[in-house]
Design brief:
Layout: E1 13-18, H1 24-40, E2 45-50, H2 52-58, E3 68-72, H3 77-81, E4 86-90, H4 99-102, E5 107-111, H5 117-122, E6 126-130, H6 139-147, E7 157-161, E8 166-167, E9 173-174, H7 178-190, E10 197-201, H8 228-237, E11 244-247, H9 257-265, E12 270-274, H10 278-287, E13 293-296, H11 303-315, E14 319-323, E15 330-333, H12 347-359
Parallel strand pairs: 1-2, 1-3, 3-4, 4-5, 5-6, 7-10, 7-12, 10-11, 12-13, 13-14
Antiparallel strand pairs: 8-9, 14-15
Length: 372
Amino acid sequence: MMYENTGEHQNMKIIYYLANETNIGDNATAYAIARKLNENIEQTCEIEKISAAELRELEVDTTRENNIVIGAGVHNLQTLAYSSLKTVWSCHQLPMGYFTEINNIDIVAIPEYAISTEVESNITTKLIKTHGVAHSRELSSLVSDFNQSDIPRKERYRLIVLGGDAPDISGKINYFSKSSVQALANYLKEYQDNDEFTLITNCHRTGKHDQETGEIIDNHQKDSELDAITTEFIKSLSQVNEDYLVYDFKHNCKNYYTELLGAVANSDSIIYIPGESTSMISEALSVIPAEKIYIYDTDSMSEAHHKHVKYTADKFPIFHLKLSEAKDLYTRCHTCNSTTDKYDYNASKHIALASKDILEFENEKITPSIRP
């Protein structure tokens, strides 16, 4: 990972993005910002993935202080706050009480729904307000991936993306339960269109925990069985719908999510997305017409997730499926008649353009005042 300060890297600015094996969505957000910044910055740059431990090793090399490091998620906040490199941080859930760390970062990108008056008054560094989170999905590449895939060709699809267990801002895990997927299956049975071919996929968080003990169940490895939540959903849905395909997410295996998005984007089709995935919502709204998007509540949603879904439903003509208090019934809501362009939702270009003037010159880094 480490480079000698000679040869081609000597005069080249490097944009690092923080990544680990666990936080897949945050990794993707950081990479998307890095990629878009590299497209817009006027200097020659190279993008490199880096871990928090590797970033700490770079701190001893003072020749690298004008390089950039980008991270996403609460778990990367302190790593960036302690860095002497130029820093960009993005997060969709803002932790209260960390304003000292946040203000030691050069650029902070936060969705509008997460910015209260108190938050804005306490942030003194460069603040960029976004709709959703940054991502790298592009319509042309999604359709190309679909065209090269072995997904059956149909006139219309109904893509159902199952959610998963998710942490709230305190780190407490909220579970995506069997009762929630049963309610979703019951709703889908009622609104079945015989002209739509059903595609089902899940994510690395689906059925991730034993909901009695809280222990992690590793059901998304290559040879593992289908997780209990996806199994329950298929069991409930298949009582009336026998014409479907399931694409089970497995680590280090072929993941069909991009091809499935391409299938929907390339046809008169619809997609169901879990409300606890801010990244999936942001991606879908960038490549699929809003009126073809159904965002459904899950019992794994945090307060921040609920705020994001409400914000989205108020601004875009999506369908919002609200889960009853008993978590056994969905009600469809459609309150926004806006014609907002679907391509306005990707935050990566917005962040890159708003931050490039600060990052592309050899100006002084904010001096961290909280080094351990």
